[in-house]
């Protein structure tokens, strides 16, 4: 009789231990403290932009770019921002006005500096730090001569000069910004 009672108590202890550990393992781990302080971000996809590069002779070539942003979702609530226009103006200023890209030496292009400069300037124009991260999907240069050569029938198409290797962003376009 004692053996039966000890066996029953043993089965209860093992069952309770198994249930406790399975529930403990099934619960989600706590988020690290630094993730709790990070704002919720929303992807604002940029449109493909073609920015002309001028010289004294006229149009010299074109920058082809697509840049998207990770923006603070809470701060964006209720704001209708003209992101396309702001981004186009800022890119025109950086690429053509400031000449951040030296076309004779594209390997010296500082992609992180370009992202930081774009983020800082756009946040200053918006009046608050809405943009958390700048994602460069494409940044290429196509000269006027390359465009003419590509438009001729029977010619082998020349690819644009890749200035920065971009990130690939999958998924649908984000809501209306």
UniProtKB/TrEMBL annotation:
Report which superkingdom the organism of origin falls in.
Answer: Bacteria
Q: Where is this region: Disordered?
A: 150-177
Q: What is this protein called?
A: Flagellar basal body-associated FliL family protein
């Amino acid at each position: 009789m004692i053996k039966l009672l000890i066996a029953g108590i043993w089965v209860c202890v093992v069952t309770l231990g198994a249930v406790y550990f399975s529930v403990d393992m099934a619960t989600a781990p706590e988020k690290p403290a630094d993730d709790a302080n990070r704002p919720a971000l929303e992807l604002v996809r940029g449109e493909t932009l073609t920015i002309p590069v001028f010289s004294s002779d006229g149009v010299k070539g074109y920058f082809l770019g697509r840049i998207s942003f990770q923006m603070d979702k809470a701060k964006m609530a209720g704001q209708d921002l003209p992101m396309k226009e702001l981004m186009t103006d800022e890119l025109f200023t950086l690429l053509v006005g400031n000449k951040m890209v030296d076309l004779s030496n594209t390997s010296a292009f500082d992609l992180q500096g370009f992202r930081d400069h774009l983020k800082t300037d756009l946040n200053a124009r918006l009046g608050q730090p809405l943009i958390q991260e700048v994602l460069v999907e494409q940044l290429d240069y196509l000269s006027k001569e390359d465009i003419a050569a590509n438009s001729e029938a029977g010619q082998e198409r020349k690819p644009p000069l890749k200035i920065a290797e971009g990130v690939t962003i999958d998924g649908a376009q984000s809501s209306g910004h």
